[in-house]
Design brief:
Length: 202
């Protein structure tokens, strides 16, 4: 049976293209804003475009913050994508926004970069931590963002350099993981990442 993934729909994510990418990787995907369905899913994906503040506000309005936390506490695997990675942490400097707090650390602006947003292809380099999602690294992936987790923390699995600035591009701890890049736009590297995520707890 194909693996089940609940793609959390809170009105601020690129759910259509991510759903197609997950299905190409072999998943059975349900796009949902129903907290009960989110709580029951064995795997969750939280995507995001735009700013952290509106994204968190939308999750709260729909009762999805508690649903995500409950699902992870009950054993679900969670993958955040782009802004979805940023929401996993304690706080974002983008609007001074309290986030989900599932991983320690904070998100800051990429001050010092020559051109923002950071858009296009860049290297994803492993930091030497053993984790299933880092098996296929190093790789090249597609990015589109201006904020990131700049301090290497206990959850950092891979980093990317932009104009001398290093930031976490893959994070993971326990059943929680996130990618700053867009797997649905990252060709072979994105497909490999999604397949590794689907294999978790298979």
């Amino acid at each position: 049976m194909p693996p089940d993934v609940a793609l959390v729909d809170y009105g601020s994510g690129n759910v259509r293209s991510l759903r197609a990418a997950l299905e190409r990787a072999g998943a059975c995907v349900r796009v949902t804003a129903d907290p009960a369905e989110v709580r029951a899913a064995p795997r969750l994906m939280v995507a995001g475009q735009g700013a952290a503040g509106p994204a968190m506000a939308a999750l709260r309005r729909r009762g999805l913050v508690a649903a995500i936390a409950d699902a992870v506490a009950d054993g679900a695997h969670l993958l955040g994508v782009c802004v979805g990675l940023q929401l996993l942490f304690e706080r974002s400097a983008e609007g001074d926004t309290p986030c989900l707090g599932l991983l320690p650390g904070s998100v800051t602006h990429l001050d010092g970069a020559e051109r923002l947003p950071h858009m296009g292809w860049n290297d994803v380099e492993p930091v030497g931590v053993d984790h299933p999602l880092a098996v296929d690294l190093p790789a090249v992936a597609y990015f589109a963002h201006s904020y990131a987790v700049r301090e290497r923390g206990p959850a950092t699995l891979a980093e990317t350099e932009l104009d001398g600035i290093r930031f976490s591009s893959l994070v993971g701890a326990g059943r929680i993981a996130g990618v700053q890049f867009h797997p649905e736009r990252s060709a072979r590297a994105g497909r490999a990442l999604l397949e590794r995520f689907l294999a978790l707890a298979a």
